[in-house]
Design a protein that fits this description.
Structural class: alpha/beta
Distance between the termini: 32 Å
Order of helices and strands: EHEHEEHEEHEHEHEEEHEHH
Number of helices: 9
Number of domains: 2
Number of strands: 12
CATH class of the largest domain: Alpha Beta
Strand order of the largest sheet: 2-1-3-5-6-4
Strand content: 15-25%
Radius of gyration: 19 Å
CATH superfamily of the largest domain: NAD(P)-binding Rossmann-like Domain
Largest sheet: 6 strands, mixed
Shape: globular
Length: 273
């Protein structure tokens, strides 16, 4: 029986997911297809109905539907409750179950390198959509503390409150106030959109130690100015595409109940970046 999967969102034509999943199907000889399906904001309910009609087997959810999608689920994984968003859905005879693979996807590159974040001090730049999953990941892995730096302090404070509720000691600062303090952290993560258009790094990395782990979740371009500056300091680099791959492999495993062919998916992704 042929199976069909999709990614829904708007805009959707830039999505790399069809390439990544199609490569996995080819690698494992699975009779499956994966399509990008544009559903505009405000049209989610009708969009989901049409996916149910074609008996879609599962789908990924991207901007702007990740939060609203929760209203249309019959069941959800604990990850959706914590992160308050969904990005992966299974359809079992019309029963939709939601998952959020952002947290596992974010943590995947650390695991691939056998690096533990336990007891490390984290600086997180940005307090938007991706930040909740990142904070939840660091809480789960028992980081020592997290400082959330954002343009608007109000959003940073909200994220710090969320972190403290999860048991991860957090404080909030304005991103402009980070300046030289970057050197006091073991892990620095950019979860802002700075870098998408080749802008210069959101903070100075002049003073960081070569032992610092620097992670940018922006995946296009692959080498952002933020990562280039970190490389110049000899830091350990984690690329945004690694988080994207981590999310995709987790979604694959949820849908197919088997290990994802990581290398084939990586090759397809890097061909498209």
């Amino acid at each position: 029986m042929s199976k069909t999967f999709a990614v829904i969102g708007d805009p959707i034509d830039h999505s790399l997911s069809p390439n990544i999943h199609s490569a996995a199907f080819r690698e494992l000889n699975l009779d499956c297809s994966y399509i990008a399906y544009r559903i505009a904001k405000g049209e989610l309910e009708e969009g989901i109905e049409s996916l149910k009609k074609i008996k879609i087997d599962g789908f990924n959810v991207t901007i702007p539907h990740k939060v609203e999608m929760m209203k249309y689920l019959d069941r959800m994984d604990e990850s959706c409750n914590i992160i308050e968003a969904v990005n992966t859905v299974t359809n079992d005879d019309g029963i939709l179950k939601g998952y959020n693979t952002d947290m596992d996807g974010f943590l995947d590159p650390f695991k691939k390198r056998n690096m533990s974040v336990k007891n490390l001090k984290v600086l997180l730049l940005g307090a938007g959509g991706a930040a909740r999953a990142i904070v939840a990941g660091f809480a789960k892995e028992h980081a020592q503390s997290i400082t959330i730096a954002n343009r608007t302090l109000e959003n940073a404070n909200k994220m710090a409150k969320f972190s403290n509720e999860l048991g991860l000691n957090a404080n909030a600062v304005k991103i402009d106030d980070v300046r030289d303090s970057a050197k006091y952290y073991d892990v620095i993560v950019n979860a802002t959109s700075v870098g998408l258009k080749n802008e210069s790094s959101p903070i100075s990395l002049e003073s960081i130690d070569p032992k610092t782990i620097v992670y940018d979740i922006v995946y296009m371009p692959m080498n952002t100015d933020f990562l280039k500056k970190a490389k110049d300091r000899g830091a350990t680099i984690i690329y945004g595409y690694e988080m994207l791959l981590g999310q995709a492999t987790r979604a694959f495993e949820i849908w197919h109940g088997m290990e994802a062919p990581y290398n084939a998916m990586k090759k397809a992704l890097l061909g498209g970046v």
